[in-house]
Predict the 3D structure of the following.
Amino acid sequence: MELREDVPAGSTAAIPHDDQGAGRLHMALFAVLLVLFAIAPMFFYPVFLMKVLCFALFAAAFNLLLGYGGLLSFGHAAFFGSASYISAYTAKVWGVTPEVSVILGAITAMILGVIVGSLAIRRTGIYMTMITLALAQMVYFVALQAPFTGGEDGIQSVPRRALFGVLAISPDRTFYYFVLIVVFAAVLLIYRIVHSPFGQVLKAIRENEARAISLGYRVQRYKLAVFVMSATLAGVAGATKALVFQLASLTDVYWTMSGEVVLMTLLGGMGTVFGPLVGAGLVVTLQNYFASFGAWVTIIQGVIFVIGVLLFREGIVGIIAKWIRRPL
Amino acid sequence: MNIKLALALSATAMLMGGTAMATDVKIGVLNDMSGVYADISGMGSVVAAQMAVEDFGAAEKGINVEIVSADHQNKPDVGSTITRQWYDQEGVDMIVDVPTSSVALAVSEITREKNKIHMNTGAGTTELTGPQCSPNTIHWLYDTYALAYGTGSAMVAEGGQTWFFITADYAFGHSLEQEASNVVTKAGGEVLGSVRHPFPGQDFSSFLLQAQSSGADVIGLANAGGDTINAVKQASEFGITQGGQDLAALLIFITDIHALGLQTAQGLVLTEPFYWNLNDGTREFAQRFGERHGGAMPTADHAGVYSAVTHYLKAVEATGGKETEALLGSMREIPADDPLLGPGEIQANGRKIHDMYLFRVKAPDASEGPWDYYETVATIPAAEAFKPVAESGCPLVN
């Protein structure tokens, strides 16, 4: 009996699970990406590339939760933004070095992730999403009111100090490679998490939670763990971004930021390794290079999203994966 | 990135005029083209900048001006990427406009780092000429202090002795209330009380009733944007101005009045640096501006952009080049004067001063046509209207 009529032929279910071949393909793609990004500053503006990288990591962290954990959070701006504030504050006021402020930012996001996650995963579906949104808005209000965040002016002129206190990396081109290393390390970590036994259990929970429970997995713990990981990595992205732009502002914690990361992930391809990176690249490029079209930026973004949802629901990378019949 | 609005005629004009050396300058108009400030700034600012270049006769004077523009979407990161790209890659020499405080502060910081020039007409934060002031930034048009001072002092002088504030509960609202309260008490008035509303606020009824029952002569709205609009609408439903109390908005623009309509906004008191129907000079500009911008009248920000670009070009002409220090020095030397903002000067902290005006919104039957909204209540002289340099907290002033 046909239970799901809407599954098109050749969907993910039909992709051959040749894990080793896929692994080699992925590693090759990562290597190509790394080389491309390493030489990219010669052709593109480094600050723009750093922004792409930060959002790519943010989207990849979000995809870990949505694409592999099956949990839709609408509050990821809270982790991204709070880490960005802490990173900016510690770099500016405490005078810590970049790697320390990124770590402190990530720890903040992790703690917040434990709090938000443990409350949110008690519910599923839309209720969970709403809880994350509500808690994220609370973080927004803290950022708006707390004296150290500078209210709507944000924290400005954050210095880029020497890496480990010795390596001067403040010029854009040098700082770019610091960002590239941080982001690539984090994205590879996400890849490792997804392809570990832990990742397999996550996918099992996503596909059939009741069966995972019956097999003896402590589903709640897995959910909390992936939530916290995703929050922490989103924090790494936020903390790095604060150093790139040398500022932290309310934009980073506002709910539209949570929406933007959903857009990037869906556009690129949810549940794919490279999808979020492509989605982030696309959205950031749109925002950047179409800035002179004024009001059209948001309209174009909306139209692209609608077309994406209507024509290729698997996302750009998802549909390419379908064509070449390999998971990407 | 660039809608190129280059003035290509300059080359031929130069050959014919036989001017000695041509200077190429590139001006970036960075503002909000899609969000809440799109009407206040937006494409209108680009039109104003173009008009300034044409009216100045830049081409005849051997100055090739190219104007580029972009939308910062009110996001500091978007604004800061554009700013860096403009300075590093596109050779922009000066950035003008930039509403939204957080973006303005970011642009100001990058401008200092790259040693270029930023002339801000869009943002209201006093930080730009206060603790975060920069030798490369000139705050051209207004700030929250000037608005609070104008409304506060002039209202007390007009007989509004007692005040009650409805304040948005975040740093901006608090500082606006603080500044206005200081002015009111200094001018001999009395603050009866204040109430804080959550930001952003939807329902103002309880706050308005509290303000009404306080019996204060003036109800001051220490908030901005959508909050102010909501508060004014609901105040009109409660008949507050008809009941004899004055409603004073500390931060509101003519486009907000246009959106609210005179029926709702009548009687509201506010301070602005410019009004299109102020004198012959402003009316002449407004008419030409309207023809090029779909009939809309220029906002204070548009006038500010015109005035700032004009002053910048005067400095380019005077120095015969575009070396940043020389231009900054020259802009401080040349007396600022144009038909729109009148005479003024640039202070040591980068604050440009000029007269400000206290307006009252007309009743619908007193208005003679579209955009005829204000009657002038008082003129606040330049010397008084802005925060004294010594009190600004700017590290450049010693």
Q: What stands out?
A: The interface with chain B takes residues 45, 47-48, 51, 144-145, 150-154, 156-157, 172, 241, 245-247, 249-252, 287-289, 291-298 of chain A (CB under 8 Å).
